[in-house]
Design a protein that fits this description.
Recoverin, domain 1; about 0% strand
Amino acid sequence: MTQAERGHFQAMFKKVDVDGDGVIEQVDIDQLVQEMLVRAGAYPGSPAWRRVTDLGNKMWQTLRSGTDADGDGRVTAREFVSAYRRPDFLDQVAIPFELAVLETADADNDGKISLAEWLTWQQVKGLPSAEALQEFQKSDADGDGFLTRDECARHVKESYSAQ
C-alpha cells in the first residue's frame, strides 16, 4: 500500500472511529449514523431514518463478520482497510449506506441533488465547503448543476477507492 493510500484509509478510519479509541465498535457506527441523520434533517422513526439506520447496522455486521479476525467485536484499522478494499463491501454495503444518507439531503425529493443539498451532505460528513464545492463540480458530469443518483454513486465509489 502506498503512503497516499495509507493516509486515505487512515482518514476514513478516524471518521468512523467516533470515540477515537483506535478501534471501531458497534457504538461508533451507531453514533456516526445518528449524527449524520440529525445533521441531514431526518426525523427519528421516519422512513429515511429507518433506512439509514438499517444500512448502518448492515455495515457494522458486515465489518464485524467479514473482517473481525479475532472475534473480539472490535474492528482495527487493518481490518477496516481490508473491508474497504473489497469491491463487494463497497458495492453492497458502503455505497448503499452513503447514497441513503445522501438521499436524506434531497430536501425537495426531486431525485437529484442540488449544490445546496450536496453541501449539506458534505457538511454532515465533515468536509470543508471549499472541498465539497470542488467535488460537486467534478461529480457533475453533464454540468447541469445537479447530481443524479448515478453521478453520486460514481463519486462515492471513487471516494472510497484508494487514492
